[in-house]
């Protein structure tokens, strides 16, 4: 599943990251984050994958648009 610009913005809100902090965590440019979140460009799949992995490492879970709309939430801690 790919992430949407809205999910990216929401995930940043959950973890309290700025666009610059997300870029640093994902190893991409701040401009790429800004353009994606603004809907000005569609990043390559590899870029979206590193963004997603950065959020998942911080505890974010992406929810598929299974009839109720796409979303994000914190993962339950592993026991």
Describe this structure in words.
With 79 residues, the protein is mainly alpha-helical. The chain has one domain: 434 Repressor (Amino-terminal Domain). 52% of the residues lie in helices and 10% in strands. It has 4 helices and 2 strands, in the order H-H-H-H-E-E. It has a two-stranded antiparallel sheet. The longest helix has 13 residues. The chain is globular. It starts with a helix and ends in a 5-residue tail after the last strand.
CATH superfamily: lambda repressor-like DNA-binding domains
CATH class: Mainly Alpha
Give the overall average pLDDT: 92
Number of spatially distinct domains: 1
Number of strands: 2
- CATH topology-level name: 434 Repressor (Amino-terminal Domain)
Radius of gyration (CA) equals 12 Å
Low-confidence stretches: none
* Assembly form of the protein: single chain
Helix/strand/pairing class, anyone? Answer: mainly alpha
Termini gap: 26 Å
Primary descriptors:
434 Repressor (Amino-terminal Domain), globular, mainly alpha, 79 residues
Topology:
Blueprint: H1 5-15, H2 19-26, H3 30-38, H4 45-57, E1 60-63, E2 71-74
Antiparallel strand pairs: 1-2
Give a brief outline of the structure.
52% of the residues lie in helices and 10% in strands.
